[in-house]
Amino acid sequence: MPSTLSRRGFLSRSAAVGAGTAVAASGLASGSTELTQTTGVDALIDDAATRALADHDAGGLTVAVVNGDEVHTSGYGHAFRSEDVPVRADETLFRVGSVSKVATWTAAMQVVDRGQITLDAPVDDHLETVDLPDTYDEPITLEHLATHTPGFEVRGRGDSAREPEYIRPLAESVSTDVPARVRPPGELHQYTNYAAALTGQLIADISGQRFGSFVTDNVFAPLGMSNSTFQPAPPDLVPAEGTAVEDVVSFYSDVSPASGLHTTGTDMARLLQAHLHGGVVDGERILSERAVASMHQQWFTPHERVDGMAFGLFERSRGDTRLVRHGGSVPQFATEFALIPEEDVGLFVVAHGNEASGAKQEVVDALLDQFAPVDSSGAQRMPDGMPERADELEGRYRSVNTTDTVSAEKLVYGLLTGQPVDVRIADDGRLVTEQGDRTDEWVEVEPLVFEHVEEDSTLLFRETDGEVTHLLNGLSAYEQIGYHEQLSVQGWLTVAASVIALTGLVGWPAARGWRRYRGGESPPQSVTRARWVAGAGLAGLLLFVLSFVGVIVAVASMDRPTLFNRPPAWFEVVFVVPTLGVIATAGAVAYVARAWLRDDWSLVTRVHYSAVVGATSVLYWLLQYWNLLWVRMG
């Protein structure tokens, strides 16, 4: 089905391939040269998209490419969970995940463009519905939010819901679980959904409109993005007859400015054009040319050698070509939005299916190889001696998403997301990093700055008060951790401590029962009292585990949001149990000290009691390390 997207109108295209049938249409070209170029781009898209769907378990995808005044839009496969409905670029909805932020940051720049806020103004002065913690003297600004440098911990709780009925108003979502500020603003990049969600509420508070209404009136409507919406469950997402969105979707964004956009390939082509053509599409201006240029310039980087952040967009270098881009994903969808401002080129790709990410990336790679090719035949870099401060660099580094989280979510990030980075120095002076199955080698080019031996990427080490504390792989930050903080070490500690603790929890009552049965001599009264106190500490651990599992089962059976996404207010009561257990264990430690100082009890009794209390203390230390004592849920 043809559509008119070109500013000069000489070419547009929409294609859909589904159920074994190809449907394609193209407009007229003004001149054979343009037609040949256009056909080449269309053929490239067709080949890459068809191959991607064949190579991956993906049901459908849509592509939009803007190349100067040319616009190419096409669709392949079938709509989401609708095998009999082919993808059409101008009408088939896709979920774009974090690419929603592109629309949000565009709207934020509109507010700046109109003089309603400056980039360096404290956002707290303009927020009416959210009170940010006054942890640091330095205020958080819109620039910090757009570069993900406000210093917030990562917060996953409250980002999503499993049913659309659980979606809250944005003001409630961003003010209910305000993340802690863990560092001064502007110091370190840490990507969070909360920064974009808070920006959405900032737009609402400044404009006096709901966020979704503002974006519709000021971005979507002027650009002709008639199918784009921040509704949580638009019916057209699943156009199959007799199938409702709620029947097949179990993830809904509760922070719509960060991840709640539904859109089409044709609509996103309009947004690409706005960014590439100075804020104007078909005579409709949404941003001044200066504002667009400001969005695309670099606003933050940890080092001049490292790709940084534009205004809400990530920089990416491919050889000598600079891109500004954003990716996105939610369950079953993967998206890419990329601009090459100097070449007046932009692309948008989104796919759905079990392997949506692989399908999307195959198309993106093919397009970037065409519009931003790189020379991959470069010689390897060689080290010139050992790195400075080599001994300080070696060790294990864990993502700051885990190390800097002060809520109970630390355990979730530590166990389920990201892999640590192990750093060692090879005999020839190369720095070697191992993360999961990937091994990379780096050469020091200046103190604490390393370049990859083959690829165009940079690794940095950050020091605090003269001590190396962080590794930065591009913008991704990792904090150096001690041996005792490694998951494998803590796992063995947990097993060993649990076994020793159980010898007291089970062994003491069993021994007492055996003495009663055989009529043996009872231990001194002080031993009995000490064991009761230590047993209370152990009982706190056991009751905590049982109550935690019980709450998970109970909440799962309720008609309400999940425990992780939105724990009930009474959930914090669960953590009173281990807190009381710590108090009891502190009393048991006092008994240990007294027994050894006074030479009470037999040596065997003292050693065993000390081992049990020590093991219990280790288990409580592990709970404290993962923020499960005196827990902060909000």
From TrEMBL:
Record flagged with keyword Glycoprotein: no
Which species does this protein come from?
A: Halopenitus malekzadehii
What top-level branch of life does the organism fall under? Archaea
Per UniProt, the keywords (alphabetical) are: Membrane, Transmembrane, Transmembrane helix
All copies of the Beta-lactamase-related domain together span: 46-361
Which residues are listed as membrane-spanning?
491-511, 532-557, 569-591, 603-623
Known PANTHER family for this protein? BETA-LACTAMASE-RELATED DOMAIN-CONTAINING PROTEIN (PTHR46825:SF9), D-ALANYL-D-ALANINE-CARBOXYPEPTIDASE/ENDOPEPTIDASE AMPH (PTHR46825)
- Lineage, highest ranks first: Archaea, Methanobacteriati, Methanobacteriota, Stenosarchaea group, Halobacteria
| Record-given protein name | CubicO group peptidase, beta-lactamase class C family
